[in-house]
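Appendix B. One record, verbatim.
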Amino acid sequence: MPGKTGRWRSTGRSQAGSVSAWQERRSKANEAYETGRWEESGPLWEAIFNDATEPREKVFAGRRAALSYRKSSRLTEARRVLRQLVVEYPEDAGTRRELARLQIASRTDQSPTEYWKRRQRFIYVQITREIAQRIASHANSVLDVGSNGTPILSWFPEVPVRVSVDLRVPYRAEGIESHQTDFLTWRPGRKFDVGLCLQVLEHVPDATAFARHLIDLCEVVIVSVPYRWPEDASRYHVHDPVDEEKMKLWFGTDPNYSYRVTELHGQERLICVYDAKAEEAWRDVPEDRFRFRWSLAGADRLLADEGG
């Protein structure tokens, strides 16, 4: 059983090949680790961890894999490796320390700034932004639900009414109306042209009530969710796997438009758009569809008021 350890030298052989091949794999993994290439280092060390037969080498590789995954914000993968390490070597102090570091990194009250710093690089965020700007840039009001302090509403500087609602950390900035409250019980006394709800529904126990409240409050709703993630992908999700059938159950209808996004690390997300004034499915999201939608509605109301 491994005890207190520093840098261990491999004394075991891989089941996957010769000693020279094993040393070459280890050298490549070590180079990635030492130069801070965490995205590359994690999978390399996990492969060594899975193939190692000598306990000290296995623990050493497992710790390095978990640390590399944590450094690259791949917390699910780090948790997977550490779970196996704890089962096989429950008394190893180094594994326990890495598990504690992972717990800190996984805290739900992580800094919104740090959360956004990682999240804004994701492909689904870029595509959601393009879709949302085509729809909402000419709106009169935009609502962002479950903001977690992220500056989604900054995508629409010309929209006069921008409202952020979050149970813990609504987005706060000049020109933003912020509400720290439970969205399910929130009654704003008005409706919004466009509502956004990004990576939120999978966390909400009563997702159907949440989705229907979105539909009631907003003329157009833009939603993103993890797509078909396994049940154990995130301990903070309560509905995985989420797919088209589950979304239809929550919203009571098919989306007018949907887009599946695959991130570079392989995870998928589903972006859906629900338009209360359109029954047909869309092949795309042309900006012209929404360029004059709300301004014309306002003009009609103005004429009606003057005529009265």
